[in-house]
Specification:
- The protein has helices at residues 2-14, 22-28, 33-44, 48-66, 71-77, 83-94, 98-104, 154-161, 165-174, 236-252; strands at 127-133, 136-146, 183-187, 198-207, 216-220, 223-233, 255-257, 262-268, 274-285.
- It is an alpha+beta fold.
- Helix 2 (22-28) crosses helix 3 (33-44), helix 4 (48-66) crosses helix 7 and helix 5 crosses helix 6.
- The radius of gyration is 22 Å and the shape is elongated.
Length: 288
């Protein structure tokens, strides 16, 4: 998988001055477009679309300083429909407009080309199981929240804190399927997984019961799930679980992600210092 990801990086470099078809990149990686975007954002720490944009503006910046083409020619070469659109994007990355950068020889920001390499760290074996299960329903309280890649998601924290204890207790009693108890469910994420894009967040349970009045229901069709478990210091154990799933498990196993909700069940120790977690991700077997 790492070799195929590096082939994707090479393909991006060859087409920075032309259209980049993400579906074609996914075929190069022998995976789905959905899984390529998800894996890239996890490994690189940024969405694929953001990386491509930053690489284009890095190369365009060098051409701006070189002065051999007009600013409009550079804008068109790197996919911008107007000089104004190019100037806005250029300033967002470099902190200075292209005209000023050319006049003053300003220092610009550089997005390095990414390469993926395997690092052997001697970590322990990952605990997981793969299960096929019939359809089920997530029932709970729902909010539309922004995606946050690092650090706490304050929108989710505020939303959960605002749920009254009586509602939490009623919700807990509805749980009658794995994963048991209250779960955090993320669904309908933007394909780019860019910072600040929105997703549906459910504080809910997995159940066969109908949704009570005032609660939302998310039907989930039958499918295959990879289930990962971990325990350790909070929140590091959970953060490391997400990291290890995408940097170690997916590259080493014949599965890829498929569209569907991501489900996390967490149990904290009384003082909140330790956590036990179970992560459910929708998957499908790789073809070939």
């Amino acid at each position: 998988m790492l070799e195929r990801l590096n082939q994707v990086m090479e393909q991006i470099e060859r087409h920075l001055d032309g259209p980049i078809d993400v579906a074609r990149l996914a075929r190069t990686a022998v995976t789905s477009e959905y899984h390529l975007r998800r894996m890239f954002s996890t490994l690189a720490g940024m969405p694929l679309s953001q990386y491509i944009r930053r690489r284009r503006l890095t190369v365009a910046g060098a051409e701006v300083l070189a002065g051999r083409r007009t600013l409009l020619e550079i804008a068109v070469r790197y996919g911008y429909g107007s000089g104004e659109a190019f100037a806005r994007a250029f300033r967002a990355l470099h902190g200075v407009g292209p005209g000023e950068a050319r006049r003053t020889g300003a220092a610009l920001v550089s997005q390095p080309r990414l390469a993926f390499r395997l690092t052997v760290e001697g970590s322990g074996s990952m605990r997981y199981r793969v299960v096929d299960r019939p359809g089920f329903t997530v029932v709970g309280l729902k909010a539309r929240v922004p995606l946050v890649h690092t650090g706490p998601n304050q929108a989710i924290i505020d939303f959960v804190r605002g749920i009254d204890p009586g509602t939490r207790e009623r919700l807990e009693k509805l749980s009658d399927q794995e994963p048991r108890g209250t779960v955090a469910v993320c669904d309908d994420l933007d394909p780019s997984r860019a910072e600040g894009t929105e997703l549906d967040y459910y504080h809910g349970v997995i159940t066969s019961a109908p949704a009570p009045e005032g609660m939302a229901a998310l039907p989930v069709p039958a499918g295959t799930w990879a289930v990962f478990t971990t325990s350790g210091p909070a929140p590091q154990a959970i953060q490391h679980l997400w990291r290890d799933v995408f940097t170690e498990w997916f590259p080493s196993n014949p599965y890829r992600g498929r569209p569907g909700p991501e489900i996390l069940r967490t149990r904290l120790s009384p003082d909140g210092s330790e956590a036990e977690a179970e992560l459910w991700l929708p998957v499908e077997r790789e073809q070939g």
